[in-house]
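STRUCTURE REQUEST FORM
Protein name: Acetoin utilization protein AcuC
Source organism: Dactylosporangium vinaceum
Requested output: structure tokens
Priority: standard
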Amino acid sequence: MSTLVVWDERLLRYDMGDHPLDPVRVELTMDLARRLGVLDRPGVTIEPAEPATDAMLETVHDPDYIAVVKAASTGRRIGIMGLGTTDNPTFVGMHDASALITGATRRAAEAVWTGASARAVSISGGLHHAMPDRASGFCVYNDPAVAIKRVLELGAQRVAYVDIDVHHGDGVQEVFWDDPRVLTVSLHESPRTLFPGTGFPDETGGPGAPGSAVNVALPPGTDDRAWLRAFHAVVPGVLRAFQPQLLFTQCGADTYRHDPLANLQLTVDGQRAAYLALRDLADEVADGKWVASGGGGYALVECVPRAWTHLMAVMTGEALDGATPTPAEWRDLAARRRPGAPVPQTMSDGGDAGYDAWVPGESPDAVDRTIMATRRAAYPFFGLDPHDPRD
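Status: completed
Returned output:
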């Protein structure tokens, strides 16, 4: 199994300063993966990123918006198109840093589609909130959308995008809202309680692509078992019906139980189980063609490095045992980078990654009601029975 990792340290330049999206989370991820031998496995290739050109960015973003991003990147005070806000402060070099991340993710998708690599990961990517004409939610350019556009340019007719970030993948859904070639599936905390306020079950695609969007809006407090029940009750069914030629996954780690910006209750064990499920689905429905990006995640030491190291382990071969100790050298680096932050000793939280299969009508709790709402809204577009757990 060949896996491309698009990475070099220039990707750490996407740095908004004193801001939740701290690049230290990516630095610590790559250090942990390297020390645990994940990046040295047979078949793994590490390739430096190349920036997306304006023409590449314009497959998703308006030229006027790109021009404003460039102007803001020089240090000018800019307060339009979503820039200059608390969420999206401007910084010198912003365009170059954002274009580099976009180029990395685009290259990952291109490599998998052309067969140069079976799987590929752009761990610094996953900036799924950026809109064609504005920045949003810490995201300047929408690298997953640009990457999927590239695969479509190369001839793909069915691409599935599965987003497991705690926030709705609104930007990617917006870009492909009316494109029947792209299925967007997002599992996220309910828009009633969390940014961006979209991602309700009845958001199912535009007039030209009915059924192209599937949204699972989970209640605050959803834990590993409940999250996995919802995932398995919805995602395999729609992917099997859609039969994508490539699976793109946005793997934000902010579903974590101690994430400071959200309210789900997953452990790294539950997140690891999600990556294993995505791998199995990629093998089953997309001939193994799997591209993954990072995304959100604000427990910078406690969660993100472990979660994404698990992701890269699953993508490059055998999953890591949760009992694996974190290396002492990594713990020292984490303590230096984020003094006072909890530094985990192993790759597990002792979480429960099992789940009970969804069965309709059995004393439904809030998660079961969410499952049923999504299935009722989306499943008929795929010729599936919302009430039949076999679908």
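Reviewer notes: DSSP finds eleven helices and eight strands in the chain. The chain has a mean pLDDT of 98.
Form closed.
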